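thread: overnight batch results

M.L. [08:02]
morning all. the overnight job finished for the chain we discussed friday. pasting input first so we're all looking at the same thing
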Amino acid sequence: MKRLLVIAILSIILIKTSAQQQKVFSVTVTGKGQPVILIPGFSCSGDVWKETVNHLKNKYQCHVLTLAG
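M.L. [08:03]
and the structure it wrote out:
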């Protein structure tokens, strides 16, 4: 039982330290002009904005965020 508890505690510590090293979000910038910020939903990556960015990139500078997780 003690061994299982020690393994569980070490696993939690390792998961927590690896989570701290991840970026909270990343930003991809495409196009020129007035800036536009595009933020996806929590369960989506910034890729959901590809068609929109292709349409807007000639007139706007698109900042596409991808949230971690």
